[in-house]
């Protein structure tokens, strides 16, 4: 199988490249981080057209997005809206033109219409439904991140523990999330691509751990790996999701189940940064 991964340098995309290659699949990489010509904002992108013709299946993971800090700073700017509209316009037009099977990476925030990010993902879902593709709603996937400006909460906390021995939090930590390790997300995407034609379009595909954790507990797990690390919650409340609490549709459990606990996943992330960034790591 030849897969095209749009957003192949992102947190999920990079992990998916390795995962699919380990299974013997051919993977076409496409990400603006590789080269300027891999910019999905360029309408009628020639390289994208070439790859679309070659691919058997497309994973549409590319988006201008990051963790809560990034969203809080950028999601209400013109550039954020424009970038993502252009990315979707180019990509969905190519998918329509070449009639490719595809999965669109959405978010459990797509029904949070006070959020620009949520509105954009909802728009992507509408395009996907019209074209007969599959929508996957990700819930706080975490893994190895290279673009630290867009780092999500677990990476952010690990690096704070490493650099300052203090995890200073953006909120009071009472908000709850469901976290999923990136390799589990990759397995879900692969299974869904293989079962593409038999997956119900009437059900929602929520790729998550199905376990709630509050952010303060996440900080405590990470701090336990670094000697002397202190946790400093702020007085702020969650102003990204505004304490809205969705519940995931369990339909996907008929096809896939998460394997990695939060503790196991965090340990893997800490070990990675210990090996590559010389962290003061305590086993």
CATH superfamily: NAD(P)-binding Rossmann-like Domain
Order of helices and strands, N to C? EHEHEHHEHEEHEEEHEEHEH
Number of domains: 1
Please tally the helical runs, counting DSSP H or I stretches of 4 or more residues: 9
For the sheet with most strands, the description reads: 6 strands, parallel
Model regions low in confidence, pLDDT < 50 over at least 5 residues: 279-283
Secondary structural class: alpha/beta
Q: Return the CATH topology.
A: Rossmann fold
* Proper CATH architecture: 3-Layer(aba) Sandwich
Overall spatial form:
globular
Mean pLDDT: 92
What does this structure look like?
By secondary structure, the protein is an alpha/beta fold. Helix 4 (78-98) packs parallel to helix 5 (116-131) and helix 6 (153-164) packs across helix 9. The model is unreliable at 279-283 (pLDDT under 50). Strand 1, helix 1 (11-22) and strand 2 (26-30) form a beta-alpha-beta unit. The protein has helices at residues 11-22, 46-54, 68-74, 78-98, 116-131, 153-164, 182-194, 215-223, 262-277; strands spanning 2-6, 26-30, 57-60, 101-107, 134-138, 141-142, 166-168, 176-177, 180-181, 205-207, 213-214, 230-232. Helices cover 41% and strands 15% of the residues. The protein contains nine helices and twelve strands. The chain is globular and about 55 Å long. The longest helix is centred in the N-terminal third of the chain and has 21 residues, at 78-98. The termini are far apart. The relative contact order is 0.13. The chain has one domain (2-277): 3-Layer(aba) Sandwich (Rossmann fold), CATH 3.40.50.720. The strands form four sheets. It has a six-stranded parallel β-sheet, with helices on both faces. A two-stranded parallel sheet has the order 6-9.
